[in-house]
Design goal:
26% of the residues are buried. Helix 1 crosses helix 3 and helix 4 packs across helix 5. The termini are far apart. The longest helix has 46 residues. The chain has 179 residues and is an alpha+beta fold. It has 6 helices and 5 strands. Strand 4 and strand 5 form a beta hairpin. It has a 5-stranded antiparallel β-sheet.
């Protein structure tokens, strides 16, 4: 069907979703059947400010994903679908979805795309099990600091040993010279 035969609101919706895919570091597709409006509102809050949860039409979203260069998600757009568009840390959003799904089994994570790579529901659960980026960076910095301190002590040890030996030799010479 020619694009000029399509309703303008559908064209606008496809363009908006296409831009969301392009601007997101991750997009997670879920099924939400059985969740109340209040539960969806709670889910949106639990995802934080770096993610936007949106109920979508499968056909329009497939078109938008394909226009954004994402063809891998087509299999997930069946039944009721909603997408969490993540602009920040994908781990935090994955944790929010995982935790909400534990309390509300009606939310089913189908899969998603993170930094251009396709993730299954199981992969997203593994991602949610990771510590946040800040915690991982802090651990890395702590490990590097400990390594540097150990290296500095190792490099300093021969100098310290030499200084002690020289001091002992000097003391021995002084004692020998005094006799």
């Amino acid at each position: 069907m020619a694009r000029d035969q399509v309703a303008p609101d559908k064209i606008a919706a496809v363009e908006e979703i296409t831009n969301k895919f392009r601007d997101s570091s991750a997009a997670v597709v879920t099924a939400y059947t059985g969740l109340s409006v209040a539960q969806l509102k709670e889910l949106r809050r639990s995802l934080g400010e770096n993610a936007q949860y949106r109920v979508v039409k499968n056909t329009l979203t497939k078109i938008a994903a394909n226009e954004a260069g994402i063809n891998e998600l087509d299999e997930f757009f069946t039944g009721s679908s909603a997408v969490a568009f993540v602009t920040g840390d994908p781990v935090a959003a994955a944790k929010g979805l995982r935790d909400f799904a534990k309390e509300n089994p009606a939310l089913v994570v189908k899969g998603g795309i993170v930094d251009g790579a396709l993730y299954s529901a199981e992969d997203l659960n593994k991602l949610a099990a990771l510590e946040s980026r800040e915690v991982l960076l802090a651990k890395l910095a702590g490990g590097m600091k400990a390594s540097m301190a150990k290296a500095a002590a190792t490099f300093q040890a021969p100098l310290t040993k030499f200084a002690r030996t020289a001091d002992a030799l000097r003391s021995k010479v002084e004692q020998g010279g005094a006799e």
